[in-house]
Design goal:
Layout lengths: L14 E4 L4 E4 L1 H14 L21 H15 L1 H7 L3 E4 L7 H14 L4 E5 H10 L1 H9 L2 E7 L10 H16 L3 E5 L3 H7 L3 H5 L5 E3 L9
Parallel strand pairs: 3-6, 3-7, 4-5, 5-6
Antiparallel strand pairs: 1-2
Helix pairs in contact: 2-4, 5-6, 5-7, 6-7
The structure holds adenosine-5'-triphosphate, magnesium ion and zinc ion (ZN).
Length: 220
């Protein structure tokens, strides 16, 4: 946190003095600033910040998008249990712009707010780190909550072993340690199975797979 933070009109440098100036408490502006720093650090894209809330109404939704929202709410309501049990969620579907990334980020943000170390990683980056950045891939392997988005967008030839190796190194390890993982993909469940054989069974009950169909919010 920068020493230069001035705070708002209600505080001084982010602190409000109480008890005749003997004690100081954090102002909401400082708490917001800290949360923003954590979101940035966790690679939660800034363009999503304003709608990472379950109480924002969606313009139109399919039954699947409604179910996705309910599952997200349920996950967040039981966050502590889910994190300590290593439970995750896999939102997948070939329909674009249905809110998969948004809903996974809502969960990730809730974890960050609850103080759990968390990170959002794009699948192509994970593969790149698997190939050439041991430190970074190991950090992803062991972070308390990991979100892997854009699974399938690796541009890597189907016969390449790197995706499978990355799943084995990161996900198998996380499952064994009981670390929660959120996953997002633009593949249909069938396509996911044929691209990454054996991974669905690795997910077991701890990472339920939900096939998201519905309305593209970007087109509204
Ligand atoms: N509650 C909302 N109301 C309106 N638009 C929203 C809402 N939540 C998210 N959006 C916008 O809808 C768009 C699609 O959402 P999102 O990126 O989560 O979908 P996605 O399923 O991950 O898409 P893709 O298939 O391209 O990965 C985003 O640009 C996002 O800014
Ligand atoms: Mg997405
Ligand atoms: Zn303030």
């Amino acid at each position: 946190m920068s020493d230069l933070f001035k705070g708002c009109e209600k505080c001084s440098g982010g602190y409000i003095r109480i008890d005749d100036g003997k004690r100081a408490v954090e102002c909401v502006c400082l708490r917001r600033k800290k949360l923003e720093a954590s979101l940035r650090e966790a690679n939660v894209y800034e363009s999503f910040w304003s709608h990472l809330r379950l109480d924002i109404p969606t313009p139109v939704k399919s039954p699947e998008q409604g179910a996705m929202r309910r599952m997200t709410a349920e996950f967040v309501n039981n966050l502590k249990h889910n994190v300590t049990s290593g439970n995750g969620l896999f939102l997948t579907g070939e329909a674009k712009g249905t809110g998969k990334t948004t809903h996974l980020l809502i969960i990730l943000k809730a974890a960050i707010e609850a103080g759990y170390p968390a990170h959002n990683a794009a699948w192509p980056d994970l593969i790149r780190w698997m190939i050439s950045d041991k430190e970074e891939i190991d950090r992803m392997r062991d972070v308390r909550m990991l979100m892997i988005d854009e699974i399938g967008n690796d541009g890597i030839r189907a016969e390449s072993e790197f995706p499978q190796t990355t799943f084995d190194y990161v996900l198998r390890h996380r499952m064994a340690r009981g670390l929660p993982t959120l996953m997002g993909s633009n593949l249909s469940p069938l396509e996911f199975d044929s691209r990454y054989p054996g991974i669905k069974s690795l997910l077991s009950k701890r990472i339920p797979v939900f096939y998201v169909k519905g309305v593209d919010w970007r087109q509204l």
